[in-house]
Design a protein that fits this description.
7 strands; alpha+beta; 7-stranded antiparallel sheet; Replication Fork Single-Stranded DNA Binding Protein
Amino acid sequence: MSYISAKGKDAAKAATEEKKDFSKALVPFKSGTTYKVRLASDEDFVEYYAANVFKVFYTTPVTPGSLYQKAADALYKAAKDAATEAEAEELRNYAYQLMPKPRYLFGFINLADGEPIVVDLTKAQAQVVISAIEKYAKKINKVAFELSKEGSGTSTTVSLSPVLDMDEDLTETERKNFDEADGKEIPDELYENVLYVKDESEQLEDLRNFAQKFNLDIGVLGIDETKEVEPIEDEEAPEDVF
């Protein structure tokens, strides 16, 4: 994979244009939240993989070969060599917790201000929203939708339902933003930049906390503590280089 991202005029444009902050587009979506939105198209969602262990570290997107994946693989291997089935089952449970799993980012036009927003959903939640998008695909340019989350824990539900009466159920501002969003697109770069990807030193710290939480020898995670993983530093690089 090349480290070159742009050439010639494209590179010049990238060097001179103002750096955009996409992080604010990822909006909180806690239980009890409802957004009134417009769908820009019926394909504005992407899949990514993330690692997450409850009360150890928050959801973090991963790239192929992440330390979370390597640790999960090491645990599954250790389970095969376990002395008892009970020990093997315990190791498989730990491996499952660390194994990166698919999540989904959905892009919408927020009718509150007419700007694109992104929400982050689990696979089960995404299936519900995708079904609604497919059901109303022919009407997305005619109706607004309410995106809602209710409940807690395993009872949490997400829904995407059409606004039945646009005149009655939308404010004047929301109706104006709906009309002005006609033809607006959700840029691909939005999905690519709303999430922060941890470097190996941060991943390693998560795995150390995981091992401590469950009283595991960190070696069973495939980690050699004699090799400290440090982020790459470049004295001539700007502070915001990644």
